[in-house]
Amino acid sequence: MADKRFFAKSGSYSIADLAERVGGELMNCPAPDTVIEDVASVEEAAGSDICFVENRRYVAALGSSKAGVCLLPRNIADRAPEAMPLIVSERPRRAFAKIAALFYPQEDHRTGVDQSAHVDPSAELGDGCFVGPGATIGAGAKIGAGVKICANACVGEAVVIGDGTVIGENASVSHALIGARVVIYPGARVGTCGFGFEVDESGLVKMPQLGRAIIEDDVEIGANSCVDRGSGPDTVIGRATMIDNLVQIGHNVQIGKGCIICGQAGIAGSARIGNYVVLAGQVGVGGHLEIGDGVQVAAMSGVSNSIAPGQKVGGMPTVPINDFRRQIAAVKALGRRKSDQENK
Amino acid sequence: MADKRFFAKSGSYSIADLAERVGGELMNCPAPDTVIEDVASVEEAAGSDICFVENRRYVAALGSSKAGVCLLPRNIADRAPEAMPLIVSERPRRAFAKIAALFYPQEDHRTGVDQSAHVDPSAELGDGCFVGPGATIGAGAKIGAGVKICANACVGEAVVIGDGTVIGENASVSHALIGARVVIYPGARVGTCGFGFEVDESGLVKMPQLGRAIIEDDVEIGANSCVDRGSGPDTVIGRATMIDNLVQIGHNVQIGKGCIICGQAGIAGSARIGNYVVLAGQVGVGGHLEIGDGVQVAAMSGVSNSIAPGQKVGGMPTVPINDFRRQIAAVKALGRRKSDQENK
Amino acid sequence: MADKRFFAKSGSYSIADLAERVGGELMNCPAPDTVIEDVASVEEAAGSDICFVENRRYVAALGSSKAGVCLLPRNIADRAPEAMPLIVSERPRRAFAKIAALFYPQEDHRTGVDQSAHVDPSAELGDGCFVGPGATIGAGAKIGAGVKICANACVGEAVVIGDGTVIGENASVSHALIGARVVIYPGARVGTCGFGFEVDESGLVKMPQLGRAIIEDDVEIGANSCVDRGSGPDTVIGRATMIDNLVQIGHNVQIGKGCIICGQAGIAGSARIGNYVVLAGQVGVGGHLEIGDGVQVAAMSGVSNSIAPGQKVGGMPTVPINDFRRQIAAVKALGRRKSDQENK
User: Fold this and answer.
1) Which residue of C has its CA nearest to A212?
2) For chain A, which domains are there?
3) pTM (whole model) above 0.90
4) pLDDT digit string, tens, across residues A226-249
5) A251 noted as active-site residue
């Protein structure tokens, strides 16, 4: 499936091996040693490919699939072609993700410091680092083992980066302590000066931004996203939180672990976000608010009050999601032509 | 008009020549050989300049203009000063655009590979390419004729770029097949990893993103915009589609030809956008939706359902544009002080 | 308070000296020569630190603070610990900003042109400039004294930059006249081509963008923000206007002085913004509109009509802020379950 120019495939695996790796159950599989060579979509899969089907919506495609083996939940196993071996899994998409990573490990074997990189003599680099062309590393920076600093990325003075982290092309990082296995995608900005000042009749006075950006292990920060450093307290992104592209994180924001912050969302200064929070695309969160663990905010919503843990909310400003749905229905009714109006 | 430090003017043209090039009709023009030297606004134009007036709103300015010739529609020709030669055109702005491009062709004559650029020996470069200082081109990349890779831009391994395309300063491109005459503006990110994972109690599993970004001929992608590559299927931007700054295009999105996607709009994963669609500024489009040909979406609207071809819609979520206008009026009425309320 | 790896502290000051510098009044201070070594938050301050408390919300923290001296307004002075010296100031946060800048002047002493920078021989550089690794400066550029062009930043041909301005890492500037003491943060794009074209059945015609971006003195443009150049007229950002991250400024926009444009706001082409205007986060402003002096627009609002000076507005589209609050209340009521409904 994958274009071999861009993605290096690694190895092949028996059906039995794949089933075991994802904790799935073999079904309709007389030859579990059959070798699978690649992943593919249910429509495009050939006899040496594994595919997956997540739910009933795709059973039509499943019926005519030529896949060598299919991951699917038990309740649609009877919809597969008669001769198709199956791996039954209640989370077929998740299992497929693991298998795709097996075939395409996307390992980055580059190491060494390009001669055009600018590494300050006082910076420390761990074993197996890669520092690409034009990348810069400032004085006193401490870079862990296996870190990849890609072409034209800029790492500021005294920045600390943990093992296995990647700083993408043209990204820049300053005033930051960054954990292990973090991915900063191309063009992202971490640790830039926050937006703080005092205004009065005599003009603006900038508030010095004397905090740091703390990025914990396994965080990802999307392309062209921005994480300002704190103003005195730190800005903190918790472990394994995933941040999409073009997201703005203001100074002093604290985000817990395992959150998902979708594209173009923005979080204003000093907001506190709990663990496992989901902010959908283009959501805005006001400054100094608190969002509890597990909160989910619908796309384009505006959070202007703190939200208790576990709530699902939507709207501008946000209300409980069912209230939001009723708002939508009511406002839609207001917009209909009189001749189209339902009786109330 | 244009600051000669930044824009090189090229040539001069007779009034007759200009009229012919835009298919316009000369009127009130006893000396069609009069030479025009430059373009200008109706207010600033001197006797050797050509200007344009699009509609009645600008007739006051027209009346006192000193332009050497004016492009305008027939229905306001009688509002021009008596001695002013005219070129009658039903699309004066469009005609002016063509004439401005004639005077200011903005050709980029730079060629050659800067000695500080990093071009992998296995990359192929067509004739007349420019590779600027600090730019990088990865192994196996195939770069067409006349391509400009500007300073500090990064082109990844195996990327294919068609003739005449420009990759702006500090932009980065990977996992992508890019057509001819494409413009990727400074800081844009094309082909970056999509935002896809499976979540459960044991944590996140990232879905490998094994597709590509396909950018067809004549597309433009604005400054600091992001186009993620597909997850297995490809992300596709169709021919001559124009994407403004700070736009987010998620993985697997398919956009048709001739679309206009304005600043800060965002399109979530796997949405399908038809041909000639217009998304105004800050619009959000939800994942997996389908937007038909010719649809126009008002600024800041949120598309959460598929939209049939030809519709004009607005609102959050979107409704037909006239319903949206009625919604606005109704909600405004809800917000007025009681003492201000109109009778219904 | 500040991490000394990232922020160099400079000097120490007596309480009396600090009070004088901010025009504050000493109170409860038997030893005004006591030396203060650092700034800190009210919670973390030790005996050699100065902190501030802005209002009654923080009096609990004030009561248990160990600070050596505290800036506060007169009306809460009686809530400080008995032995704590005080500096009474009606603007304690502003005073603190000045004192923090005194302790942490964040001066950038770098000078000189890195040997990997690419400075066109025809460019002029003032005294004391810094041009970082991989930075490029085009032909005919005129760079003032003490300007810092950071690593991998790109300054285009003929660009003019005033004294003391900073162009951040990986930022790019073209077709622009930039004043003194301006800060362009990392990844910002200034002077890029505007989004203008004429569409008809035969396709798109691009309107040449022949204006400039004029950035007046003391302006700041946030990380990854974009300011397009004008199409013929110029795009102008007035003196001391502050622009946050990921903001989009379209072509021909004119912004007055002292404005505050928060994160992810967008201003469409040819809009005119007065002086001291505040646009909160994610606000959108339509094209060709006029926003008067001192207008304040609430977060995520959509401005689709011109706004008279001094108005506070909110909503989509914007209405006077009190109307917006009533709209919110009314729409919230529409969304409540019937069983929860208040009588009207």
Assistant:
1) C3
2) 13-103 (3.40.1390.10), 171-324 (2.160.10.10)
3) yes
4) 999 999 999 999 999 999 999 999
5) yes
